[in-house]
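Margin note from the TA: students keep mixing up input and output lines. Inputs are the sequences; the output is the structure of the whole complex. Example:
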Amino acid sequence: MSWTRLFDSGKLFGVSCLAALACAQPALSRDLTVVSYGGVTNETFEKVWLGPFTEETGISAVMDTWSGDLAKVRAMVESGNIVWDVMDATAEPIEIGCEQGLFEKVGDDPLFTEAGLIKGGLTECGIGSMTYATILAYKNGIFPEGPTAVTDIFDTETYPGKRGLRKSPVDALELALIADGVAVDDVYATLSTPEGVDRAFAKLDTIKDDIIWWEASAQPPQLLMSGQVVMSTSYNARAALAISNDNADLTMVWANNVTAIGFFGIPKGTENLEEAKKFIAFTLLPQVNAAFSDYQPYGPTVTAAGAFVKPDVLPNLPAGHIDEDSLVFDGGFWATQGDALIARFSSWVAQ
Amino acid sequence: MSYGDVSRDITPARSRDLRVSGAIRKKAVGGAAKAALPAAPLLLFLLLFLVVPLLTILHSSVSDEQIAATLPETTAALQSWDGTGVPAAAVYGTLAGELRAADEAGTLRRLGRRVQYELEGGLGILLNASRALPEEALPGDAQAIRELMVGADPAWGKPGVWRILQRYDTPYSSFYLRWALGLPTVLDADGAVSDGPGYDFPTIYLRTVLISLAVTVLTVLIGYPVAYVIATSAGRTGAILLFLILLPFWTSLLVRVMSLIVVLQTNGVVNQLLTGMGLLGDPLSFLYTRPATIFAMTQIQLSFTVLPMLSVMRTIPADQLRGARSLGAGPIRAHATIFLPQAVPGIAAGSLLTFVMCLGFYITPELVGSPSDQMVGSFIAQFTSEDLNWGLAAALSVVLCAGAAILTLPLARRVRRHA
């Protein structure tokens, strides 16, 4: 009996291996497939970018969802069965994937160099898709006076209770150092030294038992609303939408926010390369670029788009909150040092 | 197949078959060719989807060809190095050429990740070396290359990285298995064993076994009375109870876990009930804890423990209990001396089934447990689909399978003896 059961656990693993490769389905001539993080973001993509793009060019396009890990892209590119054409991602998977040859190096294409992207909005493989910020959201009515900075997540004395943090070293290590007294401008220099990394993990250790980790960006508002946590880091738009659309009784804290640029990348070897480039170039048209913020407060990546952003959305966009206390996310840092930090983080978190 | 239909008109002989699912094997091996023929599709299926994947996993747990495949000449040249100091300058030249080729082929970073598994900062060390090399043709003078590399990263002037490269002139190694067993595997730049932070796999295995044991014990404690009542009650009560036991089988595991989250969360049904009745001042944070994990797994596994127990208990004649009572034994004594010993094979089969199934759980702990409640299955999934470290994932599976065999074999023998 035990042997049959044992074989089953082996089979389970075999099946999960197959599942990992399941994305490698045979591809016929496909529609242009754009991939983002799912939920509201995908809906907005369809409304403001995919729909108008199809109308304009006659190229039909569909959305798909991914969680941001490169494994699928790698399996896809290596097997030659590419089913995704445009990936919307945070900076670090695009940078890391670029160095591994997983994305097309299209950064020097005049379509993009002449689009008027903001500073840092164009890299070798990445074309700026939107700007976003990691902020802190807390539930009203729990503390007499709420947290005043994102780094207050480390202050368990003044603000006791469970807190949500993204299950990733990205942002967490930076915020830990700022909370530990490192100046915003020195964060990445400190994090480049072994002592700095130890210091960040030591700071995280102080609140480890109070953290509930989230992975999908839709989770923080849910965790807050269900009372699971009293405060949580969140992407600015998710929190803002929960407040405006779902009447969530939350407050957003911007001080010490981490501002970052999201990027489009094109998986290497896709048959829809030209369509993918056309699509990305389309999203960079100032009016189209700004339209995203009508639905979700993620900021434009083209300088000229600023003129088309609705005035009532402005306070919710990261651009208005970049000051001496906010950190500008460094995707290049994570591309070179990320592997070691991610490995250390995932073993630390499991202990 | 519905368990319920079978157990209704059960005969002692068939119940044995149910208990020992190895009966399939018995039939195939022990029976005549006539019996083997109908089983042929099954055997073929087992071969293709059980034996072959298992062997593949065993193979990938010892297959380790990344370094030798990317740096064939360097690893070959290092075989004559005595392991002290640093190798001759010519080796630096060879390595520079192969690093350049790897960079152009897009395999440099993957090589770096592999080296980093057992060398602190290994990825950075390789990337630094590659970036320090001039854009155009490499200098013909190996000594110049050596100076460039040592200048880019001092690790190139130390033995650590060279010792690791030296090991891998063959495509097979025990590295991943040693890693999965928690043996020290990481070196620092000087070549000394590093005690840097890493995965604590022995603790994770121990955690997996302890959680599985707790769930097994709980399902037996909860399931035994239920199975007894179903087995001994005639008519409607038994049927209804059996139906309740079978009900979860028809519900998706994910749905059941998700509904548990709704019930258990801080503002969930249980907490609202308890605080509403004034039994609790503040709601309990039960979700994302070890007890929540065990609770959820017990709920999922209960039927798997109950059904084998039930099938055995149904074969115990009720007359025997009545006989014991008529001879003067009290209800407890009659149960303990007559019923319980005969039910042992069922308990063993049920708990074995649950224990082994629990060892492989990963979705449930992921959804209702905290990161420190994750069982080895979560890590196998993580290394398979997120980190793409298939060597380690395979090695963890091999260790899990071997460990499960060692732990369950005594119990499995017991089941067979009683059958």
